[in-house]
Amino acid sequence: MSDTPDILKKIIARKREEIAEGLRSVSLTEMAERARTTAPCRGFVQSMRD
Questions:
Q1: 1-47 confidence digits (pLDDT tens)
Q2: What is the full DSSP assignment across the chain?
Q3: Which residues, 6+ apart, have CB-to-CB distance to 34 below 8 Å?
Q4: Interatomic CA distance for residues 43 and 38, integer angstroms
Q5: What is the Cβ-side half-sphere exposure of residue 14, based on CA atoms within 13 angstroms?
Q6: End-to-end CA distance of the chain
Q7: What predicted TM-score, i.e. pTM, was given to this entire model?
Q8: For position 33, what pLDDT does the model report?
Q9: What is the span of the domain harbouring residue 12?
Q10: What is the per-residue pLDDT for 46?
Q11: Is residue 27 within 8 Å of 35, Cβ to Cβ?
């Protein structure tokens, strides 16, 4: 258990890198447009029915 803080720090550092990579590959404007035009969520039950 003494390794937990170091492992969490590594996970957080990697996630920050992934977010930065994502921000470089897709502009905020494009991301907002994708969010605006995407289909609404169906929810869990509806997803299971489909």
A1: 566 689 999 999 999 999 999 888 888 899 899 999 998 888 898 88
A2: -TTHHHHHHHHHHHHHHHHHHHHHHS-HHHHHHHHHHSPPP--HHHHHH-
A3: 26
A4: 14
A5: 6
A6: 43
A7: 0.47
A8: 94
A9: 4-49
A10: 83
A11: no
